[in-house]
Amino acid sequence: MITNQSPIPYSLPPTPMLPARVEPKIKFGYLGVPYDAATSIGNPGARFGPAALREQFRALLAKRVVDGQVVDMDRGEMVDLSDVEVADFGDVALSFYDQHKAIDQVTAATRAIIDAGHIPLIVGGDHGVTYPAFRALHDATRGNLGLIQLDAHCDMLDFSEKQGAISGSSGMARSLELGRLLGKNMVQVGLRGYATSQQWGVGVKYGVRRILAPEFEEMGAIEAAKQSLAWARAGTEKIYLTVDIDALNPGEAPGTGWAEPGGLTVQQLIDFTRYLAPHVDALDLAELNPLFDSASKQTTVMCARLLFDFVTMKARAANSVSRKPKSQRKK
Ligand SMILES: [Mn+2]
Asked: Looking at the domain 15-323, which fold is it?
């Protein structure tokens, strides 16, 4: 007889990555989703992303934050992180034999982070992570939601014999079917190369907004971020941001599942994310693949920077709203 042991879907209580020095005002929750069974058509290895990024992110926080303070050199400004907590919720204990069970586990674990009052930082794994994590935010919210997706690809596969209906290629189609993500509040940024007419057509059918990679280049990162935010926030309660590493030029970010030619620069991604961060309620990073990263781990280090930016920009926005009069802010 097989004993049906219920898996532990996440680590509670979480362990601190950046402990708050006073009562925390903003809390972030790092959750790994070490799953890449849904990308069997690309490079395998995204399952090692959460552990690799955890190590880099933890080290970066430990090295650069002293006494709760860090200097944001992109702005030449001190950022007070003394009331900011970054907690590690561990990795989801995933089912590897039942994909539906696995995505339910990701939704439950993400929901636990939201319910604990932490802003989810969900780290894949393949891009199949977005649908179950976004579903947790959808379940926890009453109104409409916005979704901004940085990606080379649409991820709007309806069904295929190879990938079924749930995979790293179908997350955006499934998210649109949830009901309170309207096409006009979904923004796909960085699409390029070639897609099937089926996947392109899903976006057209729902009226999804798109900033294609050449358009992004033409607009610049800040204008693209402003436009994305305007679309995603119109009539919505919360905004979810998903970053597929293959949005970037693979020359700058080789550690990913599919080296799609062309793409955003790392600087553009940083500028885009920093602009949006104060308005984003949940973030996922997907398709970081340490097996294909360079010897210097440049893609993993870049992802740690992105998480750090997300934390400092949100902390800065929260503190400047509640503490500093406008006249004291640096122009
Ligand atoms: Mn993707």
From this structure: Arginase; Chain A (3.40.800)
